[in-house]
Amino acid sequence: MKYSEKISKKLNELLIKNYDAEKGYLEAIEQVDSDRLKLFFKRRASERSDFAKALRTEILRYGEDPVGSGSLEGLAHRNWMRLKSLFSSNNEAAILEEAIKGEEASFEEYNDILKDKSLPPSIESILIKQKNAIQAAINTEKVKEELVS
Question: Which of 54, 102, 120, 133 has its CA 20 to 30 A from that of 48?
Fold first, then answer.
């Protein structure tokens, strides 16, 4: 496998996760009543859209094709969030809990990819910046979770 294909494959994996996260946050907006949570989810969806655009740009820069949409795993997670909110007495807390789980999984994916020391510095910089933003979102979500519990 060519170096450009190897890098693009890794970036495409993250791209799919970001598509999934964006869709999940957009669906979460529809599942909550709190204006504060709606705004929070809207910001996260926008952030993930920006992440996806940056990753697409890098994939194209390497002459490869970015993937077009999210994964079946992401769809299953969003469906689980919907189902859980139907049966939960406090659906906002349940939805926020699922969002945290999704962000923690994304954070770990970024960590795994960043272990590859052959990443070009420009890509490594983008991934570190995105990973740090995800960590900040996790921290903020945990604070918000305490507020809606």
Answer: 120
Non-local (6+) Cβ contacts of 143 within 8 A are: none
Residue 39: exposure state from Cβ atoms within 10 A (0-12, 13-18, ≥19): exposed
Q: Measure the CA–CA gap between 18 and 39, rounded to whole angstroms.
A: 18
Dihedral angle, C-alpha 120, 129, 134, 146, nearest 10 ° = 150
Could you read off the pLDDT of 77-99 as tens digits, one per residue?
555 555 555 445 557 877 888 88
Crossing angle of helices 3-31 and 35-61, in 10° steps, is: 160
**Joined tokens for residue 24:** 């999940």
Q: Which residue has the higher pLDDT, 144 or 67?
A: 67
